[in-house]
Design goal:
Chains A, B, C, D: Keywords: Lyase, Schiff base. Chains A, B, C, D: Belongs to the DapA family. 4 copies of one chain form a homotetramer. Helices cover about 45% and strands about 10% of the residues of chain A. By secondary structure, the first copy, chain A, is of the alpha/beta class. Chain A has a single domain, classed as Aldolase class I (TIM Barrel, Alpha-Beta Barrel), CATH 3.20.20. In chain A, strand 2 (about 40), helix 2 (about 55-65) and strand 3 form a beta-alpha-beta unit. The longest helix of chain A has 15 residues, at about 55-65. Chains in contact: A-B, A-D, B-C, C-D.
């Protein structure tokens, strides 16, 4: 179930901050047309941390309906503690998700023993497969490869999504999960070719919202063992990823800059109607959005018909 | 509204992990009898990060009903993004809270501008006063004293609860909020006397669950300017605080150790029925719980009749 | 030996970056006239990290000669590894220092066991008393109070200088070293009164270069138990400490801002000839230096005759 | 000058902690026989932070004499401030080094402007080329790729040694230094093949002390474009790198574990006489050393004749 290109979908919003389901349907269709192999709803890129529960559900319901079983739909169940995650995961199960993606607990100071308890409790209580999501920049804890290996070998987790940016650690995850059947996915936008070369089963790039065709080409080249071609595609995508550096970081934080640029690019391509992000994230300026649009165009990415 | 001793209540649980409302009523009564000046439901000490929304509500409802207006009830509205916090805050408003306590956004990478947006949006949307909660160990961001000062001067926030452990910074918060009418509360268990000497309006000590009489004596001494007496009380309480160091930290994380010891102490005093904490937190061993009980007894804190 | 006000001396430089011994003699005399109880040469404030060995020696030799035994002279022996520290410490011994001040090893990843080894080796090899220097902002490791207590009880260290800014931890150091004979010194500019109230033996404030008379008054008040007077003095000194926030932090780093302001203030008072700091630190602008001078003057600190 | 395999040499010590020049000559010859392309004396692996100046010089002198011009010798000039680095660099120049390797200033809080000043001052004062050394785990500051690019383009630095473990950042360094003539070296033991595939000019692996032949094979394969072969070699070396995880990390810190295992392996292979590391680093236990030796043997690395 967990392989290939699985973009973490942006959640398009109306001017008022409501989920724009028409745009989300369009985005889903755009990604499916590009040949992606799965859809991840409710990741950091999907602004799950900013969305109220009702909006999380609306987004998931919309994507499940639009995907209509063509590819698996993964749903983020991201929250601070086990019981909170469990409630999100059960709703996702009801809404038709095929797997849930879960970080270590955050906000509270826990150690490896509590993290193990967290995943074991979730696995025991859920029917859906659980994907362990390693994103230390947000969780401020790094899932240890040894622990991931153990959880994979006993089937508590079915996959790992590694957004640590640390390929040395990802290699250890690959080694430790070998033979377990658990898939290893990388969240890196710019090292996807190398991760695949090392044995990753799939990639979950936020930039995949903007250029899904590029990541599908990259993945297909790597799957055939043509790493030179994968690298060429990666090089082009890495340049495109420069859009996240357009916003003035003296004015806004890291997440406003990144998600604002993804949405500005999607709006420029005509995929979504409005580039608004959710509070407390701040929008790009008009000038910044125009520069993002220019970068998108110069990367050969025109409006989607 | 914000002054004196305002303990962040533990949330007693049954063996099955449900909110034990009878124990919570007993705890509330115990604190009121000790003369506390406010009650804070849904802080880190209250395991808000581990409690599902329904359990958060049950806890708040129980405390509001038991307090019956004798002292203000503050409710934590702790979540990752503005709209999520807003939903919690509105429920708290409906359930009878007198104020909401809100951290900076977490899990996502934000800067000062997004944090300002967060508090401004919440203030505009809510009728309850907003208390800014600075707890960098959990949020991985420190609320800048200058920003707190600005938000206080324009009445966006009505108080600051400082759990940074950084008294130099707290002094700056006192300076910057001077004249704004905003209260400054410290979350420190062991520097409460000094914080009061510097001008804090109140204290929010987790250990206040275990020995509320001690903290009330400390506060009253300080209020009368008898800092020598306050210091003596503080010295005794600091020794009692050693209960959080009983659990083997090679086995469990920081939060399991701290909350496990508070609950073991409350159970030893007969205030709550069961020392269970919520998943993924791990319990103290029987031996550790016995050592906590012994420390409590040796501090002269007997069973509550 | 370790009590009272022990300022960490700035190292005045000529325009060319050589040690300005005439200015250093003047600074030493200025501090002695103010009644300080010791002199600390070669701390972070003394730019030890920027000074070549020869310049470190020149500074120490100058201060030892000028002090002429009136008060003890402490010498920083700050370096990455044990043998390197040992060489510095032996030179300091030869040059007439009365004690050496030593941090944990840095630049390499060590744990508590190596830190213990470090201090034990130094103590065994030296005749001078060793002061453990806790400055996690620079060393990126916090000396654990329990370890400091053990080292103090067996006389491996003779004092602790705490520049962690963490008064909760300092309280633990006081508790753990009790009865050992080891002195506890705080490096805090703004919590000196509280540290003394809690039992600190002395204070080592960088700002003591600029206003030694103020810190001596603060210390003497606290020694007599007049903490209200100590607090008044502290309040004034905390306002003066605003000079370190004058420099534009978008332009220069933390250390350039702090040391640049100390030296600008000393130059404004006529104590040193030139405000230059050592490479790679960057100077204040003329405008920034003028603003520092104005703050110094408005604090009632005129030129020294 | 900067390409291929450039191992950061361990510094063999006698039982008493003196530099064992006979062993160091043997190690140098062993590496040259394996076909390495350069030698780096005085890196973290060489225990530069633990060696006194005289020992640093002895090590450099020994390697320069043994290499006798066959390959370039790079010398670490690692210290906290510019003038201190300058003194080390000048001594290295006198002793025959071909380049100096320099980190950002550490121990003091500096920003990008001071780091730029640091490298510019060193470049202006030295005749040797300067290699910028990015090792955030030790320096607690990450050299920004944009700054490295600018310094490379104006020839202030001649190469970058990246020991950040962050391949995304390394890719940016490659991009920003393109066309400057500056070489890009990776310090990664386990991602060397990928770094070379991305365009790295060389590799500086600490494990290259133990198995230089392996890294030379890896490099030569990559140079011919045979990345599959490079990857096979890398896989074997990554397994061998498990020796750094043998020591009990509850007992010793990261650096004791890593350097202790390198030296135990070199002693097991008969290259050096004694596995001692320098204070404050702690030795492996006899049992740990035996397990390292067994891992080395099972990797097919026998005694060197």
């Amino acid at each position: 179930m967990f392989h290939g290109v699985i973009p973490p979908l942006c959640t398009p919003l109306t001017e008022d901050g409501e989920v724009d389901t028409a745009s989300l349907e369009r985005l889903t269709g755009f990604l499916l047309d590009a040949g992606v192999h799965g859809l991840f709803v409710g990741g950091s890129t999907g602004e799950i941390a900013q969305l109220a529960d009702g909006d999380r559900d609306t987004a998931l319901r919309t994507v499940v309906a639009t995907a209509a079983g063509q590819v698996p739909v993964l749903a983020g169940a991201i929250d601070t503690g086990t019981r909170r995650v469990l409630e999100h995961a059960r709703r996702a199960q009801t809404l038709g998700a095929d797997a849930v993606v879960v970080t270590a607990p955050f906000y509270v100071g826990v150690g490896d023993a509590e993290v193990r308890e967290h995943y074991e409790t979730l696995h025991a209580a859920l029917e859906l497969p659980v994907v362990a999501y390693d994103i230390p920049s947000n969780v401020h804890y790094k899932l240890p490869p040894a622990l991931l290996g153990e959880l994979a070998q006993v089937k508590v987790i079915s996959a790992v999504k590694d957004s640590s940016g640390d390929l040395e650690s990802f290699q250890k995850v690959l080694d430790r999960t070998e033979g377990s059947g658990a898939a290893c996915l990388t969240g890196s936008e710019t090292l996807a070719d190398l991760a695949l070369e090392r044995g990753a089963d799939g990639i979950v790039p936020g930039l995949g919202n903007v250029d899904p065709h590029g990541y599908v080409r990259l993945y297909e080249a790597a799957r055939k063992g043509d790493f030179a071609a994968a690298r060429e595609e990666q090089r082009r995508l890495a340049a495109l990823f420069g859009i996240i550096e357009v916003a003035d970081r003296g004015r806004v934080g890291r997440m406003s800059a990144a998600l604002g640029s993804f949405k500005a690019a999607l709006a420029a391509r005509g995929v979504i109607a409005c580039a608004r992000t959710q509070e407390p994230l701040l929008p790009l300026t008009l000038d910044e959005a125009a520069r993002v649009a220019a970068l998108v165009e110069s990367a050969g990415l025109g409006p989607v018909s």
